[in-house]
Amino acid sequence: MKRAVVLLSGGLDSATTAAVARERGFELTAVSVDYGQRHRVELEAAARVAAHLGIADHRTVAVDLRTIGGSALTAGIEVPKGGADAAPEAEGSSIPVTYVPARNTVFLSIALGFAEVLGAFDLFIGANAVDYSGYPDCRPAFLEAFERLANLATKAAVEGRGRYQFHAPLLHATKAEIVRTAHRLGVDLGLTVSCYDPAPDGAACGACDSCRLRRQGFATAGRPDPTRYAAGP
Length: 233
Known about the structure:
The protein is of the alpha/beta class. The protein has one domain (3-221): Rossmann fold.
């Protein structure tokens, strides 16, 4: 089996991406990042998902992005509630305050480092450019640029041992399509966490952009939503 590294946040998209990679025949190493995020319960979800999918090699890396801040997920900024139209915009931009500066650049760099050490040349990420909050590091252009960088900046690629490929199988899928794909692949989405501002007991707020997109995805897909919400279903 070919080996691949998959970024596993514990959310719906990354869990489904890992299942797609497994279906394609890859032996997976899952990488989660403890970056000081407000919703650290997603790390517990990532461990549950890795076990559920039979991923024996699951690693968590600590990189505290609170030292950079600038996001509602890593600083003392309120998480917008009530949908994208009601969310305050980032200063001078339509990109919401839940954007974490350089997050996917940092995450993919960590995954690339693991891939080079492991001798893997395939990397999977659950980036989505359809039902998402407008983050610039979820766009196809970003992933294409990072793939070019990976093949210029690594010893393995420069020495000709292989060429890195970055896979984002859900990039052009709607949330409903992702829910259906997860169901087809037997992923227990009740193990996943999407909420940006969960209650202390881990229950989802149901009102942040991520919760809103998740709920809409299940409703459109015609599938029951297994999420435990703090304020009712």
